[in-house]
Design goal:
Distance between the termini: 27 Å
Largest sheet: 7 strands, mixed
Mean pLDDT: 95
Radius of gyration: 16 Å
Structural class: alpha/beta
Strand content: 15-25%
Number of strands: 11
Oligomer: single chain
Low-confidence stretches: none
Strand order of the largest sheet: 5-2-1-6-7-11-10
Order of helices and strands: EHEEEEEHHEHEHEEEH
C-alpha cells in the first residue's frame, strides 16, 4: 500500500512521525506530499520548531490514482495552509470520493471540511475544529479514535497510540479488499 501523507510547514511533528512509523512498520510505503518541494518545518505544540522533513512529492504533481490511502496530520498552521491551496483540497476530495482509507487527526479535519467531504460523516477532532465540522454537516463525537467506514479520526497527540493502531487495521483491511477485487477481476486462465 502506498499512502500519501499530505502535510506542509507547521505540521505537528508527532502527528506526522508516529503514524508514518506505524504505517511503514506494517509494510506501507509512506510518501510525504506537500505544497512545495524541499523540506517542511514541523512544530512541537504548534509554537516550537521541531524537525524538518524532506518532501517526496508536490501535490500539484500527484494524482489520487498514485495512492492507496491518505494521512492528514494536524497542527493548526498545517491544515490552515492546506485548505487554502486548491490542489491540496482537490486531492483530498478526490481521495475521499475514491474511498481511499483516510486517517485524520487533531486539526487535520479542516482540510476535509474545505473539501466538502464531512457531511453525514462521523468523526472527532481537536475541540476547536468541531464547530466547523458540525457547520459542514458532519457528526462530531468525542472519542480517542472514531471510525466511519474507511475514515479514521482522532482528537490529538494524546490519542496517537490508539489512532496509529486503528489506521494500520483499517488501511490493512482496505489493502485486503483491493487484492480481493484484483483477483476477482482477472480473466480466467
Amino acid at each position: 500500500m502506498v499512502v500519501a501523507i499530505l502535510a506542509t510547514d507547521g505540521v505537528e511533528e508527532v502527528e506526522l512521525t508516529e503514524p508514518r512509523a506505524a504505517l511503514e512498520g506494517a509494510g506501507a510505503q509512506a510518501v510525504l506530499v506537500s505544497l512545495h518541494d524541499g523540506e517542511i518545518q514541523a512544530m512541537h505544540r504548534d509554537v516550537e520548531p521541531a524537525g524538518r522533513f524532506r518532501v517526496d512529492k508536490v501535490v500539484n504533481d500527484v494524482s489520487v490514482a498514485d495512492f492507496d490511502g491518505l494521512l492528514l496530520p494536524g497542527g493548526t498552521t498545517n491544515p490552515d495552509k492546506l485548505r487554502q491551496n486548491s490542489h491540496a483540497v482537490d486531492f483530498v476530495r478526490g481521495c475521499m470520493h475514491a474511498q481511499r482509507p483516510t486517517g485524520v487527526i487533531c486539526h487535520g479535519p479542516w482540510t476535509l471540511v474545505e473539501a466538502g467531504v464531512v457531511s453525514r460523516r462521523t468523526l472527532t477532532s481537536y475541540p476547536s475544529v468541531r464547530t466547523d465540522i458540525r457547520n459542514a454537516g458532519g457528526i462530531v463525537v468525542d472519542g480517542e479514535v472514531v471510525v466511519d467506514g474507511s475514515l479514521v479520526s482522532s482528537r490529538g497527540p494524546a490519542d496517537l497510540p490508539q489512532f496509529c493502531a486503528k489506521i494500520v487495521d483499517v488501511f490493512a483491511d482496505a489493502t485486503r479488499a483491493m487484492v480481493g477485487d484484483a483477483r476477482r477481476s482477472r480473466p480466467a486462465q
